[in-house]
Amino acid sequence: MATDTTVSEYERFVRRKVIFGAITGILLVGGALFSISVGAVEIPVSEALATLVGANTGLSNRIIWRIRVPRVLTAIFAGLALAVSGAVMQKVLNNPLGSPFTLGISQAAAFGAAFAIIAVGAGTIGIGGTVGSGTGGAVSVTNPYLIATSAFSFSMISAGVILALAKYTRATPETMILTGVALGSLFSAALSGLQYLAAPDELSALVYWTFGDVGRTTWQGVAIIATVAVLSMAYFTYNGWNYNVLSSGDETAESLGVDVERLRMRGMLVASFATAVVTAFTGIIGFVGLVVPHIVRKTIGGDDRFVITFSCAVGSVLLLLSDTVARTLFSPMVLPVGILTSFLGAPLFIYLVLTGREYW
């Protein structure tokens, strides 16, 4: 009788994962097609499919391949990278509040972009290109890759400080969290100082960048984000069993042959790198890395071998659908997706916290 009950529970356990994975896959494929079809210029799904397979060379071909496909792919891979980074940070820190934002990485990237923009306006070495206001009050930032380089560099400075202090204090989760909060506060204060000193055009460009938008990347940017996201996912998936062992405590993990300190260090480094690359190209997109792992754990349980994989898919779906809503909600005006994810993420996270943490 006990055996039958155990088998039945295991079957339900597997069935839940299969159903959740199927729903996520359908939402990802359907959401991508829908996102490609909708916008200021409506394109029927059948015409979009024909364009994707090379059977259409008209106006819709240029709209889809030059604007919408890069945007959709950026949302998919950026959501993947942010979500899996958040899942791993929460695990290695053993803290449900662990995320790129609580560790100050996103704030450091924002300061890096602001530094590049202000440096241009001050007449110093032009590391960020030309900044100015375009037609209709829009903001244009030329040479975005150099601005992205500055954002990435400061992100890695923040991650490096956290890793160095964590290693010096034997990598305790509490030290990492407290150090991240302090660094986030420091870079936020520095960013506010730059905003106060900025000229009007510089301030407009700075604020526009910090909103978070997946529509500003080119094909080259998509390739960089996709490469980093896929490699990060592969690394974390490969170490899924090791992250599972961490739940049993450091001593148990070490007795099973896991180098806990090295696992934490490498996990934090890879997660920080993935987050910094995404933030450098898209700006600050909040709550994806914080909320998605909680959604996955609450739905399928806390087995990190599955949490990591499903977090990748759910993060892609969440950011893709959020961006689709953001750019169609007030069409033809496009709302930056970072604003929408913050509005949706805060109450959703509060709900998840209030409904329990038994999966943690």
Concise synopsis of the structure shown:
This protein has 360 residues and is an all-alpha fold.
Count the domains. Answer: 1
> Overall pLDDT, averaged?
81
- Would you list the SSEs in sequence order as H and E? HHHHEEHHHHHHHHHH
Q: What is the end-to-end distance? A: 30 Å
Sheet with the most strands, sense and barrel status: 2 strands, antiparallel
Choose one word for the global shape: globular
* Total beta-strand segments: 2
Looking at CATH, the homologous superfamily is ABC transporter involved in vitamin B12 uptake, BtuC
Radius of gyration: 21 Å
Please give the CATH class.
Mainly Alpha
Unreliable runs: 121-140
CATH-derived architecture: Orthogonal Bundle
Detailed description of the structure:
The protein is mainly α. It has 14 helices and 2 strands, in the order ααααββαααααααααα. The radius of gyration is 21 Å and the shape is globular. The model is unreliable at 121-140 (pLDDT under 50).
Notable traits:
single chain, 360 residues, mainly alpha, ABC transporter involved in vitamin B12 uptake, BtuC, 75% helix, 2% strand
Which SSEs are present, and which pair or pack?
Layout: H1 2-37, H2 45-52, H3 59-93, H4 105-121, E1 131-133, E2 139-141, H5 144-168, H6 173-197, H7 200-211, H8 219-238, H9 240-246, H10 250-255, H11 260-282, H12 288-300, H13 304-328, H14 337-354
Antiparallel strand pairs: 1-2
